[in-house]
Amino acid sequence: MNDHHPTVRRLREEAAALCTEEEITALVHQFYARVRQDAQLGPIFNTHVDDWDIHLAKLVDFWSSVLRRTGRFSGSPMTQHAALPGLTADLFHRWLALFQETASTQPNQAMATQAVAAAQRIAHSLWLGYQLSRDPRTLPQALDLGQQP
Ligand code: HEM
User: What is the pTM of this model?
Assistant: First the structure.
């Protein structure tokens, strides 16, 4: 199905109606402001991110692609995260807890709900991929999405 197919067009239109670029920018900027101050996650990001303006712009593109289907993000999250030393399930739980806290304060709660659901799915797949990239012979552990510290 290409872009001109009515179903694709309808899905695009629905996704674009969910939220504005400004709402995504607010969510992303507020989330990373929390992350940078966090005792567990802050040091990891502050070690690996050289230019926060570039990182934030990339993450706005990412969430715009996820939530509004703009297709603006082109990156390789799996490879980028696989290269980070010492990631754990606890760190992913912490990431999700901060994301959920940030989402819960957004005026657009329809966007917040979709964003949290997508974040959980993506976090889960990144964590599975991370474990497999480190030790392909061991069955990866799932995240416990009901228990975020
Ligand atoms: C323990 C949890 C996480 C940590 C510590 C973490 C850390 C990082 C760091 C340090 C980078 C920058 C890498 C670099 O530029 O060298 C990065 C990139 C990124 N992260 Fe995460 N991350 C986590 C979870 C997530 C989750 C759950 C998502 C999505 C829902 C996500 C989405 C992204 C994206 C889209 C990029 C850019 C990738 C690219 O440039 O291709 N991260 N992350």
Answer: 0.94
